[in-house]
Specification:
There is one protein chain. The protein is α+β, with helices and mostly antiparallel strands. It has 2 domains: 230 residues, Glutamine Phosphoribosylpyrophosphate, subunit 1, domain 1; 207 residues, Rossmann fold, CATH 3.40.50.2020. The chain is 30% helix and 25% strand. It contains 18 helices and 23 strands. A hairpin with a 6-residue loop joins β5 and β6. The longest helix has 15 residues.
Length: 457
């Protein structure tokens, strides 16, 4: 996941704008946060482990003076969750210093690392640093160096970087991870992972960056360059629609809320059942739950109240509490559930460890029947492109039939949204999205040995 922001706003406090943009993107990563800002002469940076609000205060933001900035909030995939892997990364090059922030996951990191000079020192353990070092060791101006990276790097990467007086942003040739452009009425631009962040900082949504596009913003305005990488089919990650993106964000001109609502409607048509009420597992499944209720004619209720302050914690519960982890996160509304036949809409089942506990919790609260409805097809394959997905051994749908999964969850019935239903709800074409975790067909697969390692690890 990860959330990134890039700000170019002459006469304004870019670090502060980036701070609030990252606040809107906090759902994309909660492990570390950082901002680098430049004033035309010096790049200053601050990053730490933790949430945005805990990492920055007024004094720290005041020290990050400048009109250009990049920010990052991290969800680790490659590289452990330690401060040396936090971003933005600061690099020195013969075309000037720059700060670098990356969302995604490379599939040919080992190959790229071998292209670096033997004298190159890597301080972090991330694919992001390898990409940044390729820019350092490149030739020509920054656009030429980015173009070379686009030609060499495989996988998912949306990147923002700033020099002391310019902002750059680029997106991999497949467009796996989202990245969008906004414009300030007062002048200047913002590039962020999701459009919801633009609203937060008062920028108007302009468009999504195209797959393989490079954007440069400086005193001369905005310029766009298209990478010459050929034969790259657009492949936005479908999990952005199902789970990652905030419901108030736009992708391909369609709101995430509308897409999830349509998924729920399609699910009701594909898997109707005799029931009394519909509920959703908070929060990402709520639009789908409302859509199921609207299509089925069943009343929508709240069945679980989510503790929104639990998030990711550095304090692990003891074994007794770990076994009750769902109860740390959800409390049932007994009055809404008691004696009722309940349709429970959720966005996905990955490992299948949490769902049985939710079903058990609802039954203990008095639900007479529990019918699971999932707004995605069965997830049968790992992800190589930046989603913290399980291995084949851990993916429940890779090893069991739908009926066997139903029995394991303890539900009275189980229905998954079809692939066709999912694609139609997004408003896109199947050929425009990465559906690898559903179909096993990836837009830019890693080397065979990497796939074998992931499949058996």
């Amino acid at each position: 996941m990860c959330g990134i922001s890039g700000i170019y706003a002459p006469g304004r406090d870019a670090a502060r704008l980036s701070y609030f943009a990252l606040y809107a993107l906090q759902h994309r990563g909660q492990e570390s946060a950082g901002i680098a800002a430049a004033d035309g002469g010096t790049i200053r940076s601050h990053k730490e482990m933790g949430l945005i609000g805990a990492v920055f205060d007024e004094d720290i933001l005041s020290d990050l003076a400048g009109y250009v900035a990049v920010g990052h909030t991290r969800y680790s995939t490659t590289g452990s969750s330690i401060v040396v892997n936090a971003q933005p990364l600061l690099e020195r090059s013969d075309v000037g210093d720059f700060a670098f922030a990356h969302n995604g996951n490379l599939t040919n990191t080992d190959e790229l690392r071998e292209m670096l000079s033997p004298s190159t020192i890597l301080q972090a353990s991330t694919d992001s640093e390898v990409m940044a070092k390729l820019l350092v060791e490149g030739e020509g101006d920054m656009v030429a160096r980015i173009t070379r990276v686009l030609e060499l790097a495989r996988g998912a990467y949306s990147v923002v970087l700033c020099t002391d007086d310019e902002l750059y942003a680029f997106r991999d040739p497949w467009g796996v991870r989202p990245l969008c452009l906004g414009k300030f009425k007062e002048g200047g631009y913002a590039v962020v992972s999701e459009s919801c962040a633009l609203s937060t900082i008062g920028a108007d949504y302009v468009r999504e960056l195209e797959a393989g596009e490079i954007v440069r913003v400086n005193a001369d305005g905005l310029q766009s360059f298209k990478s010459p990488v050929l034969n790259a089919k657009p492949a936005l990650c479908m999990f952005e629609y199902i789970y990652f993106a905030r419901p108030d964000s736009l992708l391909n001109g369609r709101s995430i809320y509308q897409a999830r609502h349509a998924m729920g409607q399609a699910l009701a048509r594909e898997h109707p059942t005799d029931a009394d009420v519909v509920m959703a597992v908070p929060d990402s499944a709520i639009p789908g739950g409302i859509g199921y209720a609207d299509e089925s004619g069943l009343p929508y209720i709240e069945g679980l109240i989510k503790n929104r302050y639990i998030g990711r914690t550095f304090i692990s519960p003891d074994q007794a509490m770990r076994a009750r982890s769902v109860r740390l996160k959800f409390n049932p509304l007994f009055e809404n559930l008691r004696g009722r036949r309940v349709v429970v809409v959720d966005d996905s089942i990955v490992r299948g460890t949490t769902t049985p506990r939710i079903v058990e919790l609802l039954r203990e609260a008095g639900a007479r029947e529990v019918h699971l409805r999932i707004t995605s097809p069965p997830i049968k394959h790992p992800c190589y492109l930046g989603v913290d997905m399980a291995t084949y051994d851990e993916l429940i749908a890779a090893n069991y039939t739908t009926e066997e999964i139903r029995k394991k969850t303890g539900a009275d019935s189980l229905g998954y949204l079809s692939l066709a239903g999912l694609v139609e709800a997004t408003g896109r074409k199947a050929g425009d999205m990465c559906l690898g975790c559903l179909t096993g067909e990836y837009p830019n697969a890693p080397a065979a040995h990497q796939m074998r390692e992931l499949a058996t690890s």
